[in-house]
Design goal:
A hairpin with a 7-residue loop joins strand 2 (15-19) and strand 3. This protein is α+β, with helices and mostly antiparallel strands and 68 residues long. It has one helix at 33-48; strands spanning 6-10, 15-19, 27-30.
């Protein structure tokens, strides 16, 4: 799966910020562009990681695939 990552240089702190527009709140940073991209990949992976869900007796969980 591919995601866009926007990388911006911030001269005030001499580092790079990175965020994924498709995943609100999914952002990271790094001292270099490469670090920012690496950290953003990890942030996306953590963002998409499934979390435990408590179900009521009649609830069901389905795994769905979304076409891109």
């Amino acid at each position: 799966m591919k995601f866009r990552i926007v990388v911006e240089y911030d001269p005030e702190v001499s580092s790079y910020a990175a965020y994924c527009p498709e995943l609100p709140g999914c952002c990271s940073a790094g001292n270099t562009e490469e670090d920012a991209l690496k950290n953003a990949r990890e942030a996306i992976s953590l963002y998409l990681e499934p979390i435990p869900v408590e179900l009521k007796p009649n609830d069901k969980i389905f795994d769905v695939e979304v076409p891109v």
